[in-house]
Amino acid sequence: MQIVILNDAAAVAAYGANIFATQLQKKPTSVLGLATGSTPVALYQELIAKNKAGEISFSQATTFNLDEYLGLTGDHPQSYRHFMNEQLFSHIDINKDNTFVPPGDALNPITACKEYEDKIVAAGGVDVQLLGIGRNGHIGFNEPSSGLRSRTRVKTLTKATVDDNARFFAADEYQPQLSITMGIGTILEAKKVVLLATGENKADAVHAMIEGPLMAKCPASALQLHKDAVIVIDKAAASKLEDLEFYQHIEAENQKLQAHLVTL
After folding, report:
1. How confident is the model at residue 264 (pLDDT cuts 50, 70, 90)?
2. Phi, psi of 226 (to 5 degrees)
3. Which site among 95, 177, 234, 245 is 20 to 30 Å from 71 CA-CA?
4. What is the pLDDT of residues 4-41, one digit of tens each?
5. Closest-CA residue to 195 (of 183, 181, 205, 186)
6. Residues 6 or more apart from 101 whose CB is under 8 A from it?
7. Alpha-carbon gap, residue 91 to 111, rounded angstroms
8. Taking residues 220-249, what's their average pLDDT?
9. Cβ distance 81 to 105 under 8 Å?
């Protein structure tokens, strides 16, 4: 893991956006793995600004989202398809036919999961996968107890996740308890993974992910196995790391190395 600790949430979003922008500049046909939730919104705003400024183009890109609520149609205001359209796709030069979100309204969800996996493979695999992290350590909707080799599947949401997401639903509105999510095995096959976390409420999960053992209780700890995982966090989210100074030193040395390589 590469651990990047920045001052605040705005810096985290900008750093993450630069990774995706660099990927698109290097490979315009990139396959991007995307995420929903409050944390990625600022990153998407950065990417929209870069697109409008002509710095990057999504015209040849393909995207795959991590997850979707099972039981919601794509035009439902609380669906992740709707979220992505509102927060990113409708504001950039992407062909929406090349944007994929698990179908929450699939007649046969089990078949739909296999088809989603097949689409990712057919596209050549994900080049850069964006992740957030839940307070219980989940990535995507891979809740605690998820297998490290799990594939895209139907997953029951824990009470903690349902409670955390309840703020997005009206008091009398139906809130799904099931989802379709990429599996941990699917996520780990991405060539690069970028996880963003901000705020003190994520500090316990960040600590478990980075410094805890590899365990099903903290699904995000599976990123310890990935050869190119970048964890971008603010000081609040990093506040419970025991080796904080060490990570900051390593990142500073890494930046010096990258600057040196550029001059060669």
Report:
1. low
2. -85, 140
3. 95
4. 999 999 999 999 999 999 999 999 999 999 999 889 99
5. 205
6. 64, 65, 68, 74, 79, 80, 81, 84
7. 32
8. 91
9. no
First to last CA, the chain: 25
Whole-number Å distance between alpha carbons of 126 and 193? 9
Separation CA 218–CA 239 (nearest Å): 18
Cα–Cα separations (whole angstroms), residue 177 to 156, 162, 173 = 6, 7, 13
**Locate tokens 């891979």: which residue?**
142
Look at residue 61 in the predicted model and tell me its pLDDT.
98
H or E element in which residue 100 lies:
strand 99-100
Residues marked as catalytic = 67, 136, 138, 143
Beta bridge partners of 139: 142
Give the pLDDT band (50/70/90) at residue 263.
low
- Bridge partners of 208? none
Tokens 């035009």 found at: 75
CB-count exposure of residue 40 (10 Å: 0-12, 13-18, 19+): buried
pTM score, whole prediction: 0.92
Starting from the edge strand earliest in sequence, which strands make up the sheet with 62-65, in order? Answer: 2-6, 229-234, 192-197, 128-131, 31-34, 62-65, 99-100
67 φ/ψ angles, rounded to the nearest 5 degrees:
-160, 170
Helix (H) or strand (E) holding 121: helix 109-122
Q: How many residues can be counted in the chain?
A: 264
pLDDT at 262 over 60: no
Name the amino acid, one letter, at 117. E
